[in-house]
Amino acid sequence: MNGIVTNPIYQQLYRNLPAGFYAEPTPTPFPAPTLIELNVALLAHYGLEPSWFQSAEAAALLTGQTHSPDNPPLALAYAGHQFGNFVPLLGDGRALLLGQMAAHDGRAIDVQLKGSGRTAYSRGGDGRATLGSVLREYLVSEAMAGLGIATTRSLAVLTTGETVRREQRQPGAVLVRTATSHMRVGSFQYAATHLGPEAVQALADHVIARNFADLSSAEERYAKLLDAVNTRQAELIARWMLVGFIHGVMNTDNMSIVGETIDFGPCAFVDEFNPGKVFSSIDRRGRYAWNQQPAIAHWNLTRFAETLLPLLDSEQDRAIELAKQQLTRFAPQFSTAFYAGLAAKLGLAARSEAGDTFADTTLQLLAAHDIDYTVFFDALTIAANLKEDVALLELCAVSEDGQREASEWLQQWRTLRAMSPLDTASMRRANPRLIARNHLVEKAIAAAERNADYTPFRRLARALASPFDVATTDDELLSPPRIEERVTATFCGT
Ligand code: AMP
Ligand code: MG
Predict the structure, then answer these.
(1) 304-342 pLDDT per residue, tens
(2) Catalytic residue among 92, 110, 227, 253, which?
(3) Environment of ion ligand 2 (residues, CB < 5 A)
(4) pTM of whole model > 0.85?
(5) Which residues of 261-283 are buried (b: 16+ CB within 10 A; e: fewer)?
(6) Which of 85, 89, 94 to mutate to test the pocket of ligand 1 (most atoms within 8 A of CB)?
């Protein structure tokens, strides 16, 4: 198929939704749209050729500077609870849905631009994105994919040739991202608030047909949709937490119906473990802290369930009862996924009561001694392989108390592991060596912003694609930040 340079984005599924769900923006000119990075591996994963994406036509389309006349892009409307406050109209204020392309397995993949200019939903915003925020999303979303966690993907970065005004002027850029859906809890809230139950039903049917096809002819399919969305979120949040990820802005508009991690703002991975850790500079009360994420997900899913009530039963009391039944399943589903994951991280083949208690003790030990979460589980995996504990004991050797606690802990670990050993290859798959540490992400962004030097960004992106098996030449990417390298807050940087 070499040499064929046609645009593979061929349809616009969201156009089938009722009127009111979207707007058609006009193109925004940019001085010099330039392709900086194309994720060729992601294209290969979809079975697509890179050639069109490298063309001049693509650079113009992928920055929103021209629109395809055959398949015009859309900006989607949605609502959302931001930090608990309901905002009836948010929508794609700086994003543009180009449409879908077909992966080799027949799946329709959404292609969306972020930073491509103003839309009907921009409110006071400029519709732009900074290069820094674009590179951050690229690195963190691709890190998630490397970790095997459901996520929107980053397909390309383009600079626009203009600077955008934030606290300081910064280079502007556009991220091209892909997803299996852009429907959010906030999309349902928008439909319920502005368009009524029929539109909610149309939206639910759209989502079922596209992303939950096994429910298409199911009885009580809307209750089952709620259940399926709950299950995906319970899994997702557990998997985030198991790698120390903090999303940072789990507003209902940033929660995907299909369970992909979406809208990477002030997100980060923890270095030294602290269950109440927050990075986001705007999250002053710790609403979206590491350990708050399951409760917040449940809160968001309750908002989702409220929008579905008219579809669940014509009698409101029965509908509420049905929704409650589904929602009570979230906590145990999360717990199962989380503790099963912790068992695997500890190298235990099966969950047990003793194992769960031990996992809690482990997290307390890490928090009490400010131990780096990823380094600890890496060292534990190495200890399981080599049957020696030196590196692990060193980690806890901050104080005499720490050392004594660590020795006792190790003894318990050996006893538990002897009863139920997980093979070391599976243990490794539960324990990444490399995460997108904030200081590395910041360094990569700084080099790009200051000198248009994308080498650190590319190196980090490449390494993050295989976080369980890191080349020795990338060893320095494994280290926690030195004190002077620590990043304590991340900004929305939109
Ligand atoms: P976020 O916090 O990134 O999920 O964004 C929340 C809302 O603000 C969404 O509706 C965005 O489209 C909108 N928004 C964020 N930044 C901008 C911007 N620079 N211009 C216009 N809208 C924006
Ligand atoms: Mg958002």
Answers:
(1) 999 999 999 999 999 999 999 999 999 999 999 999 999
(2) 253
(3) 254, 263
(4) yes
(5) bbbbbbbbbbbbbbeebbbbebb
(6) 94
